[in-house]
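Sat 14:20. Reprocessing the chain from the morning session after the first attempt stalled halfway. Input below, unchanged.
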Amino acid sequence: MFTPPVPYHLTLDDRLFLFINYLPHTVLLDTIAVTVSGLGTGGIIWLLLALWIFVREEHKDHWFFIPVIAAGITSWGLAELLLKPLIARPRPGDIIGVWRIINDPVSFSFPSSHATIAFAMATVLSAYEPTFRWTFYVLAIFISLSRIYIGAHYPTDVIFGAMLGWGIGWASLFLRRRTSKISRPR
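Finished this time. Tokens:
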């Protein structure tokens, strides 16, 4: 495995990126990383998990999808439409020696919308199905790390996206609780 020399002028973020990006690359690991990253695209896996939880529940909560949809749309909107164009951070492809598994996406790098959506949805779904809390968060972590491994994001893109998503998830749950109190007949 080729490991590029790390120039001293690289930031800690660059160095962490190169460390994760240069973990062993095999056909199997690359396929897994691209698949896991793809699962997070557009929140598709999270919508499927939300449907699974809804169908599984004995008592169908007709407000169930409000925080799920609110968290998904807010996460995507804040990351893709507001913060990425505002901050305009280039993708890590400019670093010499980046191991790219995919072509650089056309949008900017900061924050990772995959991480933002993953952690927002993991937070919301964990509130409804606490038994699978660790499963949801581990999936969110793998989706987020896959973005660094495949060369699409810096670690700080993913960390900030995860924190933003977690906050959006809790805000969606808070608003859901407030609206259910308001809409309950007295």
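DSSP finds seven helices and no strands in the chain.
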